[in-house]
Design a protein that fits this description.
With about 70 residues, this protein is α+β, with helices and mostly antiparallel strands. The chain is about 20% helix and about 40% strand.
Length: about 70
C-alpha cells in the first residue's frame, strides 16, 4: 500500500495495529491503540514514526477501513 491517508471526518476513529510474534513463532496483528482525530497526532503518528524507524510492520485503519500497511521483510 502507499502512504498513510490522513483525513478528518466527523466522529472518525483511527486504529494502529502492530505485527507481533508469539512465543511459538506465529505472527499476527494486534490493536495497539484506538483514538479520534484530535488524539491522532500524539497517540498514533508519533508511534508510526518510531515503528518506521525500527522497520516494525504495522497497519493503520480509519473507521474500520485499512488505509496503510507496511511490509518490511
Amino acid at each position: 500500500m502507499g502512504e498513510v491517508i490522513y483525513g478528518v471526518f466527523d466522529n472518525s476513529m483511527w486504529e494502529l495495529h502492530v505485527l507481533l510474534k508469539d512465543t511459538d513463532g506465529s505472527e499476527h496483528y494486534v490493536r495497539w491503540v484506538r483514538c479520534d482525530d484530535k488524539r491522532f497526532p500524539t497517540l498514533i503518528s508519533r508511534k508510526i514514526r518510531e515503528f518506521e524507524k525500527n522497520f516494525q510492520n504495522f497497519r493503520v485503519y480509519l473507521d474500520g477501513e485499512l488505509v496503510h500497511e507496511t511490509d518490511y521483510r
